[in-house]
Amino acid sequence: MTDATPTAADPARPRLAALNRGAPAAPARRRRRWVWWLLVVAVVAAAAVLLATRQTEVQASSVMTAYPSAQHALLTASGYVVAQRRAAVSSKATGRLIELRVREGSAVEAGELIGRLDASDVAAAMQAAQAGVRQAEAALQQAEAGVRQAQVEQANADAELRRVLELRAQDFVSPQAVDAARRRADAARAGFAAAAAGIAAARGSIAAAAAQVQVQAVNRANTEIRAPFSGVVLVKNANVGDMITPFSSAAGAQGAVVTMADMGTLEVEADVSESNVGRVAIEMPVEITLDALPEARFRGSVVRIVPTVDRAKATVMTKIRFEQLDPRVLPEMSAKVVLLKQRPSEADLQPVLAVNPRTVVQRDGRPVVLRIGAGERLEAVPVNAGRMLGDLLEVDAGALKAGDRLVLDPGDALQVGARVAVAGK
């Protein structure tokens, strides 16, 4: 009987065992190849993403607003707006401030009442002076009455003397009677002269009393603080209840009640370098800009050159008058002035767009600028170049606006749509 179970010496068993161990090798190799392919794809994708997001660093300049008048610029200077007529207003008397009718920014007319001091003592003195006038007038009336009486007495005495003289000529009266009549006439004439002198004295007393009234009227007027000219109150220096004196050094007292300025006399006082003062002339046209009103341009002209040099700054003060004052212009505003070679036209004072000339390049036979747009990607914007305005180039507005960022010195390698990074940002 033959046994079907293979023996140890059976050569078929090892071969079968070997075949059974090598069966999963092919799937494992396929899995490894797929892993490698996935790694390759990931690397390629990462490289593509890196290339797509890579940014070229560039220098940028902004589109600016410029004024064509800059082409006429000769030199520049800086200074401040100053009111040429300005006053620290006080009283001519000393007293306590009991009324103040203005505040900062109040517009006042010449002669308008600003404030008033306590004038009770002046009022009392005024009443006394007026009483003195009335007393002097009464004395005058009395003196005039005395004159009239003296006239009557003199007339009677003269008539009596004439009668006595006639009687003496007829030897009806004695010489003694003539002497008595003559003495009476002389006394009457002396009385009349004294009465007339009394009138003159009374009139003098009236004049003196009236002068005292005028003095007190002036004293009362001095307690009223009035605007010396039409203008605007800039500073309120005192309050109701403060002691006011013309001498501000007095202890516990205020000097000026308010400080005011005539807004119609505003000028720019600009410091011009002494090395350039020879280029400045009276009536030279000027363009004025104010830091507070950067969008505005004002015409002006040189009206005075102060003939002295500031040693500390090595400058000469030049005063510039506005051709037309704007109510927005206020004293002490910081100003910049551009002295011009010729008077600008109205068109020269209108803003235009201007760019750095280094931003303009030729692409496809036409001038363009490369604008940094959304997502930091480049956009080509055609431009039409105009005049040089100082260091800037005038361009047509077109699709540009003030503030747009443009690439400086863009090379041919920079293409529309490329992403860029602004250096230093």
What can you see in these coordinates?
- The chain is of the alpha+beta class and 425 residues long.
- It folds into 4 domains: 58-68 and 350-422, conserved putative lor/sdh protein from methanococcus maripaludis s2 fold, CATH 2.40.420.20; 70-84 and 264-349, Efflux pump adaptor protein, beta barrel domain (Elongation Factor Tu (Ef-tu), domain 3), CATH 2.40.30; 87-117 and 224-261, RNA polymerase II/Efflux pump adaptor protein, barrel-sandwich hybrid domain (OB fold (Dihydrolipoamide Acetyltransferase, E2P)), CATH 2.40.50; 120-222.
- It has 4 helices and 26 strands.
- The protein has a 6-stranded antiparallel barrel with strand order 4-14-17-16-15-18.
- The two termini are 99 Å apart.
- The model is unreliable at 1-9 (pLDDT under 50).
What is this structure, in a nutshell?
Helices cover 32% and strands 32% of the residues. The chain has helices at residues 12-21, 25-53, 120-169, 175-222, and strands at 56-58, 60-62, 64-66, 73-83, 86-89, 95-100, 107-108, 113-117, 224-226, 231-236, 243-244, 253-254, 258-261, 266-273, 285-290, 293-310, 315-322, 334-340, 352-355, 360-363, 366-372, 378-382, 385-389, 392-395, 405-407, 420-422.
Strand order of the largest sheet: 4-14-17-16-15-18
List the domain count as a whole number: 4
Q: Assign a percent range to the helix content.
A: 25-40%
> Would you list the SSEs in sequence order as H and E?
HHEEEEEEEEHHEEEEEEEEEEEEEEEEEE
Mean pLDDT figure: 83
Integer-rounded radius of gyration: 54 Å
Shape label: rod-shaped
Low-confidence stretches: 1-9
User: In whole angstroms, how far apart are the ends?
Assistant: 99 Å
Q: Tell me the structural class.
A: alpha+beta
Which oligomeric form is depicted?
single chain
The major pleated sheet works out as:
6 strands, antiparallel, barrel
Number of helices: 4
Strand content: 25-35%
Number of strands: 26
